[in-house]
Amino acid sequence: MTTSVVLSRSGVIKCKAAVAWESSKPLVIEEVEVAPPQANEVRIKIVATSLCHSDLYFLYESLDKSLFPTVFGHEAAGIVESVGPGVTEFQPGDKVVPLFLPQCGECRFCKSPKTNRCEVAMKRHGQKSTEHCRLTCKGKKLQQFMETGTFSEYIVMNQMAVAKIDPAAPLDKVCLLGCGVCTGYGAAVNTAKVEPGSTCAVFGLGAVGLAAVMGCKAAGAKRIIAVDINPDKFEKAKVFGATDFVNPKDHNKPISQVLMEMTGGGVDYSLECIGNVECMRSALESCVPGWGVSVIVGWTDLHDVATRPINLMLGRTWTGCLFGGFKGKDGIPGMVKAYLDKKVKLDEFITHNMTLDQVNDAIELLKKGKSIRTVMRFSPQ
């Protein structure tokens, strides 16, 4: 479907979006209407958006069917097209990254260095309504996934959920910082607080896991063990700093036991980047008693996670994080600068470039483990 952008006299933009009308069905390229920004809102032209496993999880696996119809996508970068009343931080032409984890800057959570949660955002996300959504298709309001919805050529966001970035940043690269790369990298440097000379294990070598490997290396880890059942990903992990590779299928004993034996008693840090509760337990039990730290990074809400109390009583720490502990407005500009300064890799995550019309092809690639990140534009470059 070819859809040109049309701006009406009322300020409504007609453009292209990939709409998920129902769970577990292919996305449909539709013409949508994007309302003008209201007070404290900005309208953004999405230049590049990538496909994250979280999009797949909520499309295919989540039990929450109240999401639909929705526009998925939450890892993107774009340019401010217009701003609503009360917006002073942004102006048309600014390069930005939309945030699924907003930062109002005023609540007790935003003012605390201990968390990247935002009280205002938590209340908005808990409402489960289309009140703050500005997308319409065929007369029906569409939800914006995580209040972003970047599989639409234009979106409207509250200004607290937008980060302004360096105008020199290539949007088709820094879009990856909207979720996966910051999530994995930050889990290592912000949450685990990996120390120089330490030994780490990263479970799962998707984009988040590879970013966690990169974070462990940046923090000075001496040994980084990459764990995955897909041996094709091991060479890619080496690019980001992995020193050892373990495929659980190659062993007839628990992976935690394998790692304990490899390291003489356990790793200092482990990061679970899959979203599998059994792997979460394995990651914890791979840690050395006394000071080992295990971070839950992968998302799931389908099952409880459990371990025997002694595994914690012996001195291990079990924790988790969202978005790698980064406060979005503060953290993303710094990560963009790190990329521009060649201190953080982004290009190496991108295995495919497509247009939004090919979104279902991108989904199939990710489902089959044949891609790390696919970056999509709304028209060919």
Explain this structure.
This is Alcohol dehydrogenase 8b. GO terms for molecular function: alcohol dehydrogenase (NAD+) activity; S-(hydroxymethyl)glutathione dehydrogenase [NAD(P)+] activity; zinc ion binding. Belongs to the zinc-containing alcohol dehydrogenase family. It comes from Oreochromis niloticus (Nile tilapia). The protein folds into 2 domains: 42-180 and 325-377, Medium-chain alcohol dehydrogenases, catalytic domain (Quinone Oxidoreductase, Chain A, domain 1), CATH 3.90.180.10; 192-320, NAD(P)-binding Rossmann-like Domain (Rossmann fold). Helix content is 25%, strand content 24%. The chain is built from 11 helices and 19 strands. It has helices at residues 53-61, 119-125, 171-174, 180-192, 207-218, 234-240, 255-263, 277-285, 310-313, 328-340, 359-367; strands at residues 6-7, 13-19, 28-34, 41-50, 70-71, 75-83, 95-98, 135-137, 140-144, 154-158, 162-164, 199-203, 223-227, 244-246, 269-272, 293-296, 317-320, 350-355, 373-377. The strands form 3 sheets. Strands 4, 6, 7, 10, 11, 18 and 19 form a 7-stranded mixed sheet that branches. A 6-stranded mixed sheet has the order 1-2-3-8-9-5, with no helix packed on it. A 6-stranded parallel sheet has the order 14-13-12-15-16-17, with helices on both faces. Helix 4 packs across helix 5 (207-218). The radius of gyration is 21 Å and the shape is globular.
